[in-house]
Amino acid sequence: MQQAAVVGWLPGDQNYLVMGARPGKKGWQLFAWDAVHSGLKPVSPEGMSGEGLPLISPNGQRYLDRGPDGAWHVYSIADGKEGEIHGLTGHGIPSAWCADNRSIYVRAHADTNRIMRVSILDIETGEWKPWKEIRPTRPVDEVYNLRVTPDGTAYAYNYRHVTSDLYLVKGMR
User: Which of 30, 81, 76 is CA-nearest to residue 51?
Assistant: First the structure.
């Protein structure tokens, strides 16, 4: 591989999800790497976007990522097969897997960047359930990069707050 990076950990002592670019191949691809047996097997199509980290299910059997077409897809780590995500539209941003290994926390695009509306989407049935509205305690310009623990008891996010100073000068010509 020309370039490679570990982008996630899989069940077992020495198993990793690796993103790499092979010589002569088109773009990024994800691989499951068994460090004990030095085995590397592709688990995504070639041409993955490489933007952001894939979201690995709690049981380590599937992951969510943007495919070569730029849309979100679910892939099997066992064989790289692509599965469907029912109910996810272009207005939702997957943030994390739920503990049931079939639902995900989805942040919805909103009219304002100051509030994050989060729902739980069952990717097998397409059923949506509202989960939480995240409102920072201080005024911010944007909230983003949400991550939630599988059981939903804790979450973290980044925010951006830009400050500036305004000076008023009197009598200047």
Answer: 30
What's the chain's Rg over C-alpha atoms? 20
| 101 and 141 assigned to the same domain | yes
Query: What pLDDT, in 10s, does the model give residues 106-162?
Result: 998 655 557 789 999 999 999 999 999 988 888 888 888 889 999 999 999 988 888
Token code pair at residue 110: 């909103």
Measure CA of the first residue to CA of the last residue in the chain; give whole Å.
Answer: 65
Instruction: Answer yes or no: are the C-beta atoms of 48 and 65 closer than 8 Å.
Output: yes
HSE, side-chain direction, 13 A CA sphere, residue 3: 8
pTM score of the predicted model: 0.82
| Residue-range definition of the domain harbouring residue 67 | 1-83
Instruction: Kindly state whether residues 67 and 46 are assigned to the same domain.
Output: yes
**144-162 burial: b if 16+ Cβ within 10 Å, else e:** eebebebeeeebebebeee
Number of helices (H), then strands (E), in the chain: 0, 14
Beta bridge partners of 17: 8, 32
34 touches 15 (CB < 8 A): yes
